[in-house]
Every structure is written in structure tokens, then in C-alpha cells.
Amino acid sequence: MELCYQLPVLPLDRPVPKHVLSRRGAISFSSSSSLFGAPDPRQLSQRRGAISYDSSDQTALYIRMLGDVRVRSQVGFEPERRGSHPYLGVDFRTLHSRAESAGSIPARRIRRLFSFQRHLLSSRLLRGAPHLNPLHILDEDYCGQAKCMLEKVGCWSFDIFLFDRLTNGNSLVFLTFHLLNQYGLIELFQLDMVKLRQFLVLVQEDYHNQNPYHNAVHAADVTQAMHCYLREPKLAQSLTSFDILLGLLAAATHDLDHPGVNQPFLIKTNHYLAALYRNTSVLENHHWRSAVGLLRETDLFSHLPAEDSLSIERQLGSLILATDISRQNDYLSRFRRHLDENDLCLGHSSHRHFTLQMALKCADICNPCRPWELSKKWSEKVTEEFFHQGDIEKKHKLEISPLCDREANTISSVQIGFMTYVVEPLFAEWARFSDTRLSQTMLGHLGLNKASWSATEPEASGSSEEGESELARATEEPSSRALSQGSHES
């Protein structure tokens, strides 16, 4: 669990001169020694942080520590603690990590060092210090390019990979903050910007960026797609500010702390999360509970009445739980029935919430509907994550999950099956609901991308059919138990 400690009480015997404060700076540190709770040399514990004097208060220093407080095993497995299966203790933080050469500095650590200057700048400005730059939450070095991109954040061809590079790996924080501010939600809900910043940083930190696909960049991409859907005429005219707040928060946190493996893997290895949620929407329940934990840790909504905070948490859970792919047909059938009977009334809060659920489902799997260069990159990343899980299952003589066997599947076969059985039916119904230029653009890209993948394997029809059948079985699998309390639709 990533924790951020900020202790703004360290009195000085003399004020820091104003010309020193204006320059900003910090003493940063990083350690993997036993000083931070790892006396055993076989174990690794990392804590990072800094002492900063970037403050309007001239008589105090600010201490900020950011790091992983868990002790990790170098081999990637924690000691067995729950159940009896030897693989249940996989450290998902290192599951997709690649071996690094001796003496090399991890890129993630280097990014942290560069990112701290950005933290200093944004923290100072969020406390009210004036600045000529209107985009005050971005590093000055990349401000112009990132600002230019954010001006086109509603464009469907928005390149989240480029934006992530321009923001030095902090796309989720900056994108979500910008959208919340653009919709006027920070002012409307009187959100404390320091708490909001802390919440978004913790959310980004809780994504496993070692995962090829389920990482913070994916969350930022889904958030940007959600923004595009929220701007569609039917939704823009009907949704309340509360609905928009829920939609953006759900998009940003919908895969929080995703381990990079799927639910069947957790079940077959007797993972404690599978037992905790009774093998039902295991990952989605965990994403939701993790998001609620961060909301409470940062007290983001502590100024609201208790019943409003609880309502936000419940409805956030309902949105995130809707992304469970095993319940795809349930939601799609209900959506199709509403459209056939023409009784979807967005004046009713329950219907608006259901529409938000469908929008989040579309945003979550919209990669095949993006322009080819973006779609292809996402396809390669998600398939890499699938195949890596299959390699682990094969190594430990477990049954290989559908679509995870690299010897029986290819990227094209997996994608063709995914488009045929999951994406096309959902986006066809979404186009019926919102027949706009965006919907037609998405369907157009979907058709072209499917044709492109089909052209890459003209002789692999058998493999393609196998991938399609596996995916069809996965999406048609009924839920074995009812969702836990609080997960039902409003």
C-alpha cells in the first residue's frame, strides 16, 4: 500500500530569506537500507521523500515521504500466509517487472526525482501563490506542449501516450485534475485542492505501472474517453454535476490496484481477495474498496454531510462493479431492452446512473474504437499481459486461462474475438442510444481495425476461431453469486 506522509511542522530558529523561498528547492533522499525496516538483507524496502522549503511560511520546513511501506521479497513472492496454495502470495507489484542489470537505476526512481520539482511547483501554486502561467499544475519545461494537448482533451484521437510523456508519467493526476476543474466541480463541491491533489497522487501510485496494460495510463485513457461521452448531447443536457463527478472519479479509479492477472487466476490460486469477495467480481470489488479507502484516507469529502459521502461511495462502487466483463451480457440486455421500448428517461436518477454505467463500460473497452496507431499499441499491451499470466500458469503447472496461452493464440486472434463478441455489440447499442458523429467515428475505427487485424493473419482462421470461442465463453459465464451488499444498481 502506497502511503504519503506530509508533516508541515518543523520550526526554524530564523526565517528563510524571501529570495531563497522564491528559488524553491529541496533535500531529497532515497533508501533501501535497514533504516527503514528491512534488517534482513534478503528483503527490500524502499522509502523516498524530501525536505522542502518551498513555502509561504518562512519559519517552517515541509517533510514529504513517498514510498512503499511493505517489505518485498526479491524473488517476487511473499511468504505464504493464507490458504494452502503455494502461489497465493505473489507480490503483484513485481509480477511484470523485468530483471535489471546490476548497478542500474530503475526508470521509476529516476522519474520520481524529476517529478519532485513538479510537486514543489504545484504545491506552492495550489496554496495560492501567484504565477503567470495559467496551467499551474504542470512543469514549466513541458507546460506549453501539455497545455496545447489539454485544450483538445475532448478529441477522440487524443494521444494519451504522448500526454503521459509530456507530464513525465503523471498523466492520470494532471488529466483528472484538469477535467474536474474544467467542469467547475472543484469550486462547486468546495474540494480542498491540496486534498484533491493528494488523492489523485495516491490513486496514480496505487496503479501497478509494471503492468503492461492495467496501469495508470490506461486509467487516464478511460478518464479521457469518459469525458468524451459526458460531452455527448444526450448526456450533457441531462447529467447533473454530481453525476459528472461520479463518472470522472469512477473512470480514474476503475482498475485501482489491479494485480495484472484476472479473476480466474486469483480463484485458482486461493488468493485471499477471491475468498474475501466469494469469487464474485473479485477485482472490481477490490478496485472499489481501494478507491473508498483513499477517499477516506485523504478526507476528500469530509466536509460534506455523512450521508452524502456514503452516497458517493455506494454509487462509485455501482459504477466500478459494472465493468465486470462476466456481467457484460446482463448490462447489454438491459440496455437493449430500454432502447427497444424507448423508456430510458434521463430525468430519473436511476436511469441516469445506468447510463453512466454503460458509458464507463464503453470507456473501459474503447481501445478497438480508437485510431489504428493507438488501438494497435493498446492491443499489444493487453495481449502481453494475458500471455505473461499464461506463462506463469504454465510454469507452475496450473490450468492456462482462456486467451493467455501464447502458443494457441495470437494478438490478432485475441483482438478479433474481443471485437466480435464484446466491443461490437456494446458500441452498436451505444450508437443507437447516442447517434452522433463520435459514435459513427468509433464504429468506423472499429471496422477498420478489425479488418487490419484480420489482414495480418490470412492463414490463421483456426486460431482466430479458437480465440473467439474462448472469449464468447468468458463473457457468457453467469455470476455464481449475487454481488456483495451495496453493489446493486441504483
Number of helical stretches of at least 4 residues: 20
Which ranges are low-confidence, i.e. pLDDT below 50, for 5 or more consecutive residues?
A: 1-10, 28-47, 64-88, 100-105, 112-118, 130-139, 477-490
Number of strands: 4
Strand content: 5-15%
Structural class by secondary-structure content? alpha+beta
Q: For the record, give the distance between the C-alpha atoms at the N and C termini, rounded to a whole number.
A: 31 Å
Tell me the series of helices and strands, N- to C-terminal.
EHEEEHHHHHHHHHHHHHHHHHHH
Write structural notes for this entry.
The structure is a single chain. With 490 residues, this protein is α+β, with helices and mostly antiparallel strands. It has 20 helices and four strands. The protein starts with a strand and ends in a 14-residue tail after the last helix.
Short description:
The protein has 490 residues and is of the alpha+beta class.
Topology:
Blueprint: E1 2-7, H1 18-21, E2 26-31, E3 43-52, E4 62-73, H2 107-126, H3 143-150, H4 160-166, H5 171-182, H6 185-188, H7 193-206, H8 216-230, H9 233-236, H10 241-253, H11 263-268, H12 272-276, H13 282-298, H14 306-321, H15 328-341, H16 349-364, H17 372-395, H18 411-433, H19 437-456, H20 461-476
Antiparallel strand pairs: 1-4, 2-3, 3-4
Helix pairs in contact: 5-7, 5-8, 5-10, 7-13, 8-10, 8-16, 10-14, 10-16, 13-14, 14-16, 15-18, 18-19, 18-20
